[in-house]
């Protein structure tokens, strides 16, 4: 049994920790922030703890025709499919996990080749999109040139991450609440030494110059919705909703602004987000024709130029660090696929 440490208690770190536990290893999670209730989380102090501020849902982003199997788009789609299957399994076995399965509607004002070249057979059999169907012109919202639907999942982030953490602890996992400045610091911690390998699921990457943040504003409303809808507008900004389920309301979004550190929500932007979504899908307003706003949300997503860093590094002798960060806004969507890859890299290291 190896002694493994995971840095980070967001959805990526929790998923990796559980996968490694399943392989029979002793696992400790070291993190500054851990999942807590949405009602009590400190938006200012924990704005950099990305997972609580997620929607969160799965939206398939398809590789363009001719994409190499090792391209970023193809690799991420494969990770998304692995995560979809794990979410389906968890949903069936653990109804308390905070996962809801429902339809996704994707609409495009300016579809690209990845969408225009799509056929039903390719969607279902090449890209694994269960329940796929193109929408007719009559079904499209104003401004959309094309659209389709498929089966997907949404999670209530607070319920889901608390479920993962509780499962980890129940299985004997250890938890240390501490801020880490450098991954190598963990190897010197007397209370957990010796460490056979370290998983860097920190999100930020510790000095990786390719990492940058994007700030997004969304709005949580009490209005229920039975589908998750995304319209990619011609200006590149999406209009979307994510039903959280489990009395978690519905997220309406959103924005995606690189290198913006402003932590304050804009009331003007809130009104724009809500009106844009209501115009696209007026059914969400219900009989009174209004939104019931619960909270404005501003979150930071750690992005990385070139995509995810998912690889093994040997540092300072034989100290093994497996990096799993830079997922941006796709942490939930890719989480179990990343965890599976981390498990394989660890198995290779341990022999």
Radius of gyration: 20 Å
Report the end-to-end length measured between terminal Cα atoms. 12 Å
Taken in chain order, the helices and strands follow as EHEHEHHEEHEEEEEEEHEEEH
Tally of individual helices = 7
**What structural class should be given to the helix and strand makeup?**
alpha/beta
The gross shape turns out to be globular
What is the average of the pLDDT values?
95
Question: What proportion of the residues is helical, as a percent range?
Answer: 25-40%
Largest sheet: 9 strands, mixed
Proportion of residues in extended strands: 25-35%
Number of strands: 15
Poorly predicted tracts of residues: none
Brief synopsis:
With 351 residues, the chain is α/β, with parallel strands linked by helices. It contains 7 helices and 15 strands. The chain is globular and about 65 Å long.
Account of the protein in words:
The protein is an alpha/beta fold. 26% of the residues lie in helices and 27% in strands. The chain has 7 helices and 15 strands. The chain has helices at residues 11-22, 72-93, 113-116, 120-126, 157-170, 267-280, 331-350, and strands spanning 3-7, 26-31, 99-108, 133-134, 146-155, 174-177, 197-200, 211-221, 227-232, 238-243, 250-253, 257-258, 293-304, 309-315, 319-325. Strands 3, 4, 5, 8, 9, 10, 11, 12 and 13 form a 9-stranded mixed sheet that branches. α2 (72-93) crosses α7. The radius of gyration is 20 Å and the shape is globular.
């Amino acid at each position: 049994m190896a002694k493994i440490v995971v840095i980070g208690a967001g959805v990526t770190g929790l998923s990796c920790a559980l996968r490694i536990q399943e392989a029979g290893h002793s696992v400790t999670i070291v993190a500054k922030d851990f999942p807590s209730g949405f009602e009590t989380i400190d938006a200012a102090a924990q704005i950099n703890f990305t997972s609580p501020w997620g929607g969160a849902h799965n939206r398939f982003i398809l590789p363009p025709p001719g994409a190499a199997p090792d391209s970023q788009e193809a690799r991420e789609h494969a990770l998304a499919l692995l995560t979809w299957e794990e979410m389906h399994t968890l949903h069936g076995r653990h109804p308390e996990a905070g996962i809801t399965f429902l339809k996704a509607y994707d609409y495009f004002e300016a579809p690209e080749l990845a969408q225009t070249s799509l056929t039903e057979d390719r969607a279902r059999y090449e890209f694994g999109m269960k329940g796929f169907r193109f929408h007719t012109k009559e079904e499209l919202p104003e401004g959309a040139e094309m659209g389709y639907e498929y089966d997907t999942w949404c999670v209530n982030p607070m319920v889901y991450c608390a479920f993962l953490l509780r499962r980890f602890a129940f299985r004997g996992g250890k938890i240390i609440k501490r801020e880490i400045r450098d991954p190598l610091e963990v190897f010197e911690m007397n209370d957990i030494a010796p460490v056979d390998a370290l998983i860097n699921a920190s999100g930020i990457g510790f000095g990786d110059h390719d990492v940058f943040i994007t700030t997004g504003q969304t709005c949580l409303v009490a209005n229920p919705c039975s589908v998750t809808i995304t319209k990619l507008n011609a200006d590149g900004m999406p209009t979307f909703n994510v039903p959280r389920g489990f009395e978690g309301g519905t997220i309406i979004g959103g924005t995606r602004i690189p290198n913006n550190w402003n932590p304050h929500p804009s009331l003007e932007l809130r009104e724009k987000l809500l009106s844009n979504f209501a115009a696209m899908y007026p059914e969400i307003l219900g009989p009174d024709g209004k939104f019931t706003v619960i909270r404005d949300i501003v979150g930071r997503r750690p992005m990385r130029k070139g995509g995810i860093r998912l690889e093994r590094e040997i540092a300072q002798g034989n100290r093994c660090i497996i990096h799993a960060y830079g997922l941006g806004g796709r942490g939930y969507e890719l989480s179990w696929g990343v965890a599976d890859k981390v498990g394989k890299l660890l198995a290779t290291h341990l022999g």
